[in-house]
Amino acid sequence: MTAPSAQAIFDAHTARFGAATDEVAPAFTRDDPVYRAAKEACLRLGFIECDAECLALAWQARSARLGFDATAWPEDPVDFGIQPWPRDHAFAPCPKALGLYAVLPDATWVGRMARAGVPTVQLRFKSDDPRAVEREVRAAIDAVAGTSSLLFINDHWHVAIDAGAYGVHLGQEDIDEADLDAIRAAGLRLGLSTHGYAEMLRVDALSPSYIAMGAVFPTTLKDMPTAPQGPTRLAAYARLLRDYPLVAIGGIDLGKLPEVLQSGVGSVAVVRALVAATSPETEIERFKRALENC
């Protein structure tokens, strides 16, 4: 039977987050009544198990500090165990607002977008040939030379270090395999992908240069480990990770840009919106004007 406090949390936030389509039985790790109520409510609100666990622990911590309040969503970093800044051993910093962030398939696209004035670009080059990867990474670094664009290399951190790239971007599956100490020691910036509270807390412990959050909307470009997060959850994430440069990614186009920016993120990553555009340069100008006006 649903506890009154769990029902109160659910009732206070269901209009904001929606409700789960399937009922999930809570797996509790402690007996604290606030924790148990919050865990049950967050599962009913559609959060996956690991994220509901993070929220329940945060609700317990905040209630111990301030008293129980079903209407107040946890968003103070201290209740999630997030350490204050500055931090020792953090990765090199990057601008708080990275602006329009283009994720691109090869060095030719990187150069084209950099020359068109995109402030942040990422090379996402897929190949199993190490020589082809090295050529493409070095070509991308050469392509942004003389422009103001900041270049991040997706996945290929070892080549990025050798070639002297500005930064590296890694997915969750890459964190355990990459030599993070080597990336930090080389002075490269590090961006990390996340898809919810548990992954955000995991990467926060590493103190990266920026955190990417998504997929905000449905995307066909890759298989996503979680359902689309939506702008409402994105706003909650942004308030929690307010000290980081934040990048929203996943299915974002000009029509969806205003509600994404209302979340408080300082950057929006786009892929298909530029690469598939009839005139990418024209689309860039539209995005830049929209970013300036939001």
Automatic annotation (TrEMBL):
Protein name from the UniProt record: Thiamine phosphate synthase
Ranges for domain Thiamine phosphate synthase/TenI: 107-274
Protein's organism: Variovorax rhizosphaerae
Pathway: Cofactor biosynthesis; thiamine diphosphate biosynthesis
Domain of life: Bacteria
Key words of the record: Thiamine biosynthesis
SUPFAM superfamilies per UniProt: Thiamin phosphate synthase (SSF51391)
